[in-house]
Amino acid sequence: MLLEVEGLCVNYGRIEAIRDITFSVEQGSMVTLIGANGAGKTTTLKTLSGLRKVRAGAVRFQGKDITHMASHERVPLGISQSPEGRRIFPGMSVVENLDMGAYSRADRAKTRTADLERVFGLFPRLHERRDQLAGTMSGGEQQMLAIGRALMSRPTLLLLDEPSMGLAPKLIQQIFSIIIDIREQGTTVLLVEQNAAQALKIADRAYILETGEVVRTGTGRELAADDSVRAAYLGGD
Ligand code: ATP
Asked: Domain ABC transporter, which positions (predicted)?
């Protein structure tokens, strides 16, 4: 297993945002966490990035206990997140934003060309707009940039928080197909989504979160075919 999360509890003050969550991510796989607003998906990803303190439980990455490791130490280990709401640097160009993603790499000068090529290969639009200020790009383009920036650190595990949020249906299809490409290139993906239908379609394994707890798990296909899951998360269609 690449990532093992065991009995994880995270609070915001007295609010228990996640309670006793256990799940794992196999190397090379695509795993999705789905659930309604407030279920704890973002908190889980932030905790894996080292941005939230763990109250109880453990996180292991490649067998190493990283439960209390600082955020900046996790990127060199191979964990990189594309955050919800994108959070690109609006006053910087596309290329400058991408360079920020490689900031923690000691060997970045050597690998920069190859890393930029990989990102531009996945997102030709970013290549076309390489000198444009990120803040002037469309929502879809900013989303692509956020994912591209996360890839610049060559992560083993890519954490994606709601990559389809706020995008038009055609762009959503495009983003999901790029996520499949990223995984096919060998990057393990942990995807948080409210678009459960799409996420289940592409995930090897899915975990359903409800009010901070894992309530179901199965393969993407199993859950997509399950009547109660369909009724609750797929609009019953
Ligand atoms: P969304 O899709 O809306 O982001 P989510 O599943 O990602 O939902 P979280 O954002 O992880 O859910 O929130 C889990 C719980 O923690 C919610 O009850 C939320 O209100 C609470 N919470 C999140 N951030 C904070 C915060 N900064 N302070 C206090 N409570 C918070």
From this structure: 3-236
